[in-house]
Amino acid sequence: MLVNQKVLENLCKDAGEKRTQKARAYKACGRVEITNIEYENSKNFEVSAIVVGTEAYKTYVSVRDGEIEDITCSCQDYYNHYGVCKHTLASIMAFSEDTSRPKNVISKSANQTNKYRNFKQIVNTFYNEEIEEIDQDEEIALKNKGTIKIEPKIIYDKFSGDMKVEFKIGTKKMYKIKDLSEFYTRMLEKEFYKYGEKLQFVHIKEMFEEDSKPLLDFILQYAEIIKYANSNSNSNYRYYGKALSETSLILGNSGIDDLFEILKGKKVAFQKDYNTEEIEFTEEQPKIEFKLKKTNNQQYAIIPTIDIFNVTIMKGKNYKYVLDRKKLYRCTKEFEKTNLKLLELFRQNYMTEVLLGKEELNDLFSIIIPKVKKAIIIENMSEEEIKQYKPKELEVKVYLDFDEQDFLTAEVKFVYDENEFNPLNEKLNLNFPRNRIQETKALNVFRKTGFMFDSKNLRFILPDNDKIYEFLTEDIHYYTQRFEVLATEKFKSKQIRQPKIGSLGVKVENNLLEIDLKNIDIDVKELEEIMAKYALKKKYHRLKDGSFIDLKGNKEIEFLDKLVTGMDIDYKELESGKVRLPVNRSLYLNQLLKGIKGTEIIKNAEYREIVNGLNKEQLGEEIKVPENLESILRYYQKTGFKWLKILDNYRFGGILADDMGLRKNDSNIICHC
Q1: What is the pLDDT confidence band of residue 232, given thresholds at 50, 70 and 90?
Q2: Whether pLDDT at 102 is above 60
Q3: Which of 10, 131, 415, 562 has its CA 20 to 30 A from that of 646?
Q4: DSSP 8-state class, residue 133
Q5: Of all helices (H) and strands (E), which one includes residue 179?
Q6: CA-CA distances (angstroms) from residue 596 to 48, 503, 508, 566?
Q7: Residue 431 CB neighbour total at 10 angstroms
Q8: 599: Cα separation from own chain's centroid
């Protein structure tokens, strides 16, 4: 036997009969795995093992001179009384009855083992304290794991408008959570707690049924606020004007939204006026309807089909809710803006009906019915009668033009079938039904675009150049989608232009470089002002004829800017359509010409010869270094010599700087240059 019989008897005595029976069952079922042994003899050894109960528990037993020196386990039972538990006892039983010495036994001398005994005891103590505990007693844990449910009860106070929620937990018998902050602490510390004979468990999330876990998260979120608010304040502490009760949660706007999201589709105990009934949390829309009735030939009435004061409207952070006797409805945004809005208007004005005459029917059908057409049921009115008051679909015509000041003008016409009129003329006496909402929306488009009302001419006018440019480049597309847009020839002639250079001539004549710019499709007399706007990074320039030039990303404008600024050209020179420059600007001009596409470039032979001759690839082929300098010049000095010679060939000037290292003071080089 690997374990001294006396040691085993002492362990069983310390454990007690109940734990000993369970230990034998664990050993018999093969739930013990020995992980490490340090063995000298039956009175001196250390055993580590894993015992599978509700979870896998780590055990350690150290025996020295036939006495128990140290014993630990990661189960809750061990931490409750720091003695022998069924897991440690099962470990020793399994090890003791192993007839063959395990292969991983490590034999050590007593001195070597004792040398580090105290340190190992400290390590084991701290290690096991870090192990998260699941349960004190496996039978209780197994019985309750995943079965505990949470039941909410909502209490509504119609006088204050407060809504609070209480909670019960349990399996078959339910127990009220009397202190939410204490419940939060138990969950935080994974505490074992007994609520009554029918409910005792370790407070971990796994103990709760799946359907109750969202409610558990909800409780913990708000109970944490209660715990820390109350712990840092006196008894008079207020949260949003409400005392932080320990027994229930007062639901604010966000709380209502959060709780509804958890409980939607479920029935919940709801207390109102001291009566408790089950109500369903539903995403259906409440049946809030109104009837339009003819009371006599000249009068009509709008009457709700429900008792509007028998429902409760609640406001969450993101939604509104309607509560009746059986359901709590979460309203959609559309329902909130239509049916519910009409209901609230009745309630705010303490009305049970709204009367109107025949002359008000146009407004009813053009303003109210389009908004709440699903909520109003029309009674005892024929289709022919409704047609008299129901407006046709609105069509909008817009006539665009420029006036004598080059301001953009817009004349507007509203059209209902054969009826066409100017909506800006308030003196018109029209006797057909009109859609006031559609008309207002259409006129607001003009105001938002920046148009002003021209009362003299009963039209809209846009005098600001920035706004006109924005209209022509962006807003007009929106107008053409919504309205029928008609434009005059004058308007069409003043659109956004992209300046182009049709063709450009370049030639070298009489030792001068001449550029022909006659084919630019803009007036060169306005070029200076255009280029000034371009330098300021403006989006556009408005020409004298009222049209616009787009300055964004325009390669032709970029070419002209670099040509003028890079060659120091006076704008007066451009008015003739020709510019003359020193021939040594040929290379710079050639680089600029590469940047414009779609323009025909006409070059004479002498200009092409200069550009081709200055190609660096031909430098070494055409220019030869004199024989008497070939052997004494370095490579880079030869390059400098060739560069000066090619510049001289094309009558260009050139300078060698002092720091170029080309020995320009050498008389031989100078005389040959």
Answers
A1: low
A2: no
A3: 562
A4: P
A5: none
A6: 85, 11, 21, 16
A7: 6
A8: 47
Is residue 404 classed as helix, strand or coil in its secondary structure?
A: coil
pLDDT digits (tens, 9 = 90+) for 299-334: 999 999 999 999 999 999 999 999 998 999 999 999
Q: Burial code of 494-524, b = ≥16 C-beta within 10 A, e = fewer? A: beebebebeebbbbbeeeebbbebeebebeb
Give the position of tokens 């128990």. Answer: 68
CA angle 588, 593, 597 (to 5 degrees): 160
pLDDT of residue 298: 83
Tokens of 202: 């370790």
What CA–CA distance (Å, rounded) separates 213 from 58? 29
Q: Return the DSSP state at 650.
A: T
Q: In what order do the strands lie in the sheet with 354-357?
A: 354-357, 299-304, 290-296, 376-378
Six-digit token string for 108: 């050590």
Which pLDDT tens digit goes with each residue over 344-386?
A: 999 999 999 999 998 888 889 888 888 888 889 998 888 888 8
Question: For 18-49, how does the pLDDT look when each residue is reduced to its tens digit (9 = 90+)?
Answer: 899 889 988 888 889 998 888 888 888 899 99
* Nearest residue to 391 via CA among 333, 452, 434, 339: 434
- The overall average pLDDT reported for the chain is 83
Label residues 55-70 b or e (16+ Cβ within 10 Å = b). Answer: eebbbbbbbbeeebeb
Per residue, what are the HEC states of 204-234?
A: CHHHECHHHHHHHHHHHHHHHHHHHHHHCCC
d(Cα 369, Cα 292) in Å, to the nearest integer?
10
